[in-house]
């Protein structure tokens, strides 16, 4: 371990016009002795070994030329790690965290299915390799989702009704398409061009006053470099909607569970959420390389069993806007982890 008096931490963002907003949040909520600047991949001057970055010093925003930082926190939404690899050649291996944060859901499904988290993962298949009508007969409900996707976009819900019709919905429960009993559903689905999609066993979710909800666990590394749960929240969808990413309200999970389960069951669910989420983060990191945060989305089925629906490599932070008690933690932890990484030799 080396002593870096005041580590230089770079936050890599997608667009220049988002540098100020993102940097301000991380600057405000940390209380460590470090220097921060925000930059985009286009700001890296490889030949000069410098980066054009934005920083905040004594209340004044300033764009300057900086040396390469000791550690990079990646807030770009990327599935290719070329820039990260080049940066790590300059600043040291594993000094950029969240090097891939645009997760391939199919890869992660297989990873989790081979781990001891298998009981919490719904059956999932590649769309082009299965017969959807056979899966519908088996599960009565399936979700068809992109292998790469975020915010619940382009996720179709397909339900086999008691009369033999199949309802295909997008975001809301109201069907976009109805496939009659005597029609082939594959033809209907093929129109949607579901090339890089997966089919997932549909879980009959618990509802809160007739509204769907999921449970999002934010897992982050902190000052000791270990995975820890920062927040557990419930995202409650709008009435008649199944897409919880388009949520009406966000609650702390401890506000919601007492309305659904007994006091003894609450502790059991909370313990499971913590243990499963940390294990999922460890599994993801073994596959993706250096990570510092991710979120794990769960649903509770009608029997109150937990299921992992997906992992997200760049968790939305703005969803915690109204949960002020969590803001310091969710923005300070990545800075703590960056500080921790800065203490190691190249």
Structure notes:
The chain is of the alpha+beta class and 346 residues long. Helix content is 27%, strand content 31%. The protein contains eight helices and 19 strands. The protein has helices spanning 19-29, 82-91, 105-113, 132-139, 185-190, 253-256, 263-288, 324-342, and strands at residues 8-12, 35-39, 44-45, 50-57, 60-67, 71-74, 96-97, 124-126, 141-146, 156-160, 166-170, 177-179, 197-201, 207-208, 211-221, 227-237, 247-252, 293-300, 306-312. α1 links the parallel β1 and β2 (35-39). α1 (19-29) crosses α8 (324-342). It is globular, with a radius of gyration of 22 Å.
Briefly characterize the structure:
The protein is of the alpha+beta class. It is built from 8 helices and 19 strands. It has helices at 19-29, 82-91, 105-113, 132-139, 185-190, 253-256, 263-288, 324-342; strands spanning 8-12, 35-39, 44-45, 50-57, 60-67, 71-74, 96-97, 124-126, 141-146, 156-160, 166-170, 177-179, 197-201, 207-208, 211-221, 227-237, 247-252, 293-300, 306-312.
